Amino acid sequence: MSLALASYLASPVWLELAERVRLGQAPEDEPLIGAFLAESHRLALCAGCGAWFVREASYRLLLATALDGQMPASWRQLCQDYAWQALEELQRLGCASSCPLWQQMRLRSLAKVLDRAVHGLWVN
What we know:
Helix content is 74%, strand content 0%. By secondary structure, the protein is mostly helical.
């Protein structure tokens, strides 16, 4: 793990927001997810670690929450909706002609995971 990525993961604000989203501590608080994504965006710009890694971590957290059968259905749906937004941000990063092949392949894999989740191919 790079030093920049480690510092990003140690960001207290991002960690607190991520924990609140993942645990569904405020399942009726849609702005919480927006604040989490805004903090992710800020970190991607300021922390010196790659925007790809920040966006992918955000996507994975939202997807994990959306797939968690212990979460309220409304919270799971919100997280699924916002996972699409995070995936779209990754797609914008992955569409650059200079994008490495591994990122393009990773993007296809992440999109398949969300597509399967949306179509109920995984049972929780």
